[in-house]
């Protein structure tokens, strides 16, 4: 039997937040392991609340020295959120986002494993702001779409695969039915991501 290892770096969405079954990566792993010919294991280094800067350090700390066949990156929702008002600046500046993505892409391009970067999901603006212990946060789809286009452009000319599921995520199901709150998918949304 062939054995493959997947490593993932990301935030609460990749950490399975709002899914009692562990999230889209666990669901993906279960689906992959139904084939029988190959056994897949997962090293999920996603941490709720992580930003691109955190992901960069997480990538260096946890992924460089491990033998991995596929690296999955889903990160950025915490960087494009806006605190207290939709009119405020994003949590991470465009310049800093570019700096971290350049470092992440440069490192991932030199690693032996296949790297897949997923664009951010659409947000359900109709659910309103997200309230947590560190404040009230807003997201908007125009920011998500700009962010995804920014990543896609940055990845051109590399062997890193980019998957933008912003439009396909809601192909057969309305967005409110897939989201727990403005930014986190519910169990059905995590299943859709895994599919």
Task: Describe the 3D structure.
- The chain is an alpha/beta fold.
- Helix content is 31%, strand content 19%.
- A five-stranded parallel sheet has the order 2-1-3-5-8, sandwiched between helices.
- The longest helix has 17 residues.
Secondary structure layout plus pairing:
Blueprint: E1 2-10, H1 24-32, E2 38-44, H2 52-62, E3 70-74, E4 82-83, H3 94-110, E5 114-118, E6 130-132, E7 135-138, H4 141-155, E8 161-163, H5 187-194
Parallel strand pairs: 1-2, 1-3, 3-5, 5-8
Antiparallel strand pairs: 4-7, 6-7
Helix pairs in contact: 1-5, 2-3
Using the CA coordinates, give the radius of gyration. Answer: 16 Å
Share of helical residues: 25-40%
Provide the spatial order of strands within the biggest beta sheet.
Answer: 2-1-3-5-8
Q: Uncertain spans, ≥5 residues at pLDDT below 50?
A: none
Mean pLDDT: 95
Query: In sequence order, what are the helices and strands, one letter per element?
Result: EHEHEEHEEEHEH
* Strand runs, count: 8
Compute the number of helices.
5
Outline of the structure:
The protein is α/β, with parallel strands linked by helices and 195 residues long.
Descriptive key words:
195 residues, alpha/beta, 5-stranded parallel sheet
